[in-house]
Design goal:
Number of strands: 5
Radius of gyration: 26 Å
Structural class: alpha+beta
Number of helices: 5
Strand order of the largest sheet: 1-2-3-5-4
Shape: rod-shaped
Oligomer: single chain
Strand content: 15-25%
Largest sheet: 5 strands, mixed
Amino acid sequence: ATQDLLLQIAAQDERIRISRDMHDVIGHGLTGLSIQTELLTLETTGNLKEKLQLLHDNARQLLADVRETVSFIRQPRNYDLKSILTRMVEGILKPSARLEMNNVNINQPHHAEALLRCVQEGTTNAIRHSKAETILISLTGCSEAIQLIIRDDGCGMETDECKFGNGLNGIRERISALNGEFKLYSRKNQGTTIDITLPLRAEL
């Protein structure tokens, strides 16, 4: 499941790299050609002027085509996080795990990867330490943010007694890097809840 998402992210990263190279190399070259032919057209008369004007018009059209292609390539792609998480949940034999995911369209690769890693770490902790009967993974979204909740009904602990290991620290660092918010709630014999909010913004 993780490999599927990483392949999707790698493909998008490659599309962005190609579009950047097209803009920087081909786009700038055509811009220079367009400017030069325009200047030559102003300094020329007769039949040659008409040929230079045609060359200038072609350069401008090619430049517009390159810009349109670059914009298309850079369009965000939605990542199929639901099917990936569904397969992950189906692979949890004990405790019972349930996925709820509504109105979530993720087209930012680092958001998708961060959410997947958080679910992996949160469910792993619950399986290893909580003695829970059930785990709920809830992912909801709106135009401004995505919220991820991982809740178990296990043994819990007092929140002020919670010791963050490398896994939970890793989650906090990932979310913080995306300007998100990480919260952990737990009470003894009342389970544990991880509550994550990620703001949505365009990535450059």
